[in-house]
Design goal:
InterPro entries: COQ9_C, COQ9_HTH, Ubiq_biosynth_COQ9
CATH architecture of the largest domain: Orthogonal Bundle
Structural class: mainly alpha
Number of domains: 2
GO molecular function, one term: lipid binding
Largest sheet: none
Mean pLDDT: 78
Number of helices: 11
Pathway: Cofactor biosynthesis; ubiquinone biosynthesis
Shape: globular
Strand content: under 5%
Number of strands: 0
Distance between the termini: 105 Å
Low-confidence stretches: 2-37, 257-262, 275-282
Keywords: Lipid-binding, Mitochondrion, Transit peptide, Ubiquinone biosynthesis
Pfam family, one: COQ9_N
Length: about 280
């Protein structure tokens, strides 16, 4: 009885029959083919796993680097009142966080990166506060001027610990390599204020309101730096007056949008140029 016949008989009788590997006839060609197939499968398996592992590793490294940067930037803010928005503050912040002072090389824009970090954190802080503010005044169709006024003042007062050094920060933001970050944080700020004040417009007014609010904020920021009044009451009055002016423009648009649009767009472009500092570059 051949080996194959014994296997069939064992299976038919309900017995388990384990075929010895040594008894399986495999010629050289088959062995080469089997070995090649196994090697190819192993290689493909490694190739499939390798990109995932690589992406995961890169992501973890990126998170680790960002964590280090944030710790340094947070500590660096403590030195800004003394050494300003500078590489010196970043170096001191790095040493305070337990890293060599030369680690400031992680920030190619120097003080610009520190200013950007501060603006981002302030915007996030403002959003968290606005979420908890009463929404009763936002239920009608009127412009929530008080909400916007409070939002602008709250954001401005976050500069208070660094007020003496903020003119330098504004100058740093006007540098060409820092302008994109400056505009990004400003537009993020006004968009958050508009959104949490109930603005859900998707038409032309969306742009007008945000550009207008950006202009109000930057003008108020400049006024705030020269305000020494009690509780910054003069700045609050200034903000309130600018919001009323914006309401008049919005009313004009609603009454005659075709006639008012060109003047409004011109004002918007002038505001944008002022924010970038282009009008002062002669």
């Amino acid at each position: 009885m051949t080996l194959l016949q014994r296997v069939f008989r064992s299976v038919r009788n309900g017995h388990r029959y384990i075929l010895p590997l040594a008894s399986v006839p495999v010629n050289k060609n088959q062995r080469v083919l089997r070995n090649y197939s196994q090697s190819k499968q192993d290689t493909e398996a490694k190739e499939l796993k390798s990109p995932a592992i690589s992406v995961s590793t890169e992501h973890e490294e990126h998170q680790y680097e960002e964590s280090i940067k944030n710790r340094i930037l947070l500590r660096a803010l403590e030195y800004v009142p003394k050494t300003g928005w500078s590489v010196e503050s970043l170096s001191a912040g790095a040493e305070s966080a337990g890293y060599p002072g030369i680690t400031h090389g992680l920030f190619p824009n120097g003080g610009g990166d520190l200013v950007h970090y501060f603006n981002v954190k302030c915007n996030e802080n403002l959003v968290e506060q606005m979420k908890s503010w009463p929404k009763d005044d936002l239920k009608d169709n009127k412009v929530p001027s008080k909400f916007i006024e409070n939002a602008i003042m709250t954001r401005l007062l976050m500069i208070e610990p660094y007020k003496s050094t903020w003119p330098k920060a504004m100058a740093i933001q006007a540098l060409p390599n820092n302008v994109p970050n400056c505009l990004a944080t400003l537009l993020s700020l006004v968009d958050d204020i508009c959104y949490h004040s109930g603005d859900r417009s998707v038409d032309f007014n969306w742009y007008i309101r945000r550009v207008g609010l950006a202009g109000i904020y930057k003008a108020s920021e400049l006024f705030y730096l020269t305000d020494n009044s009690t509780d910054f009451s003069k700045t609050r009055n200034f903000v309130s007056s600018r919001i009323r002016d914006a309401q008049l423009i919005q009313t004009a648009l609603n009454l005659n949008p075709v006639a008012a649009a060109p003047q409004t767009l011109t004002a918007a472009f002038v505001t944008a140029k002022n924010m970038l500092g282009i009008n002062t570059l002669k």
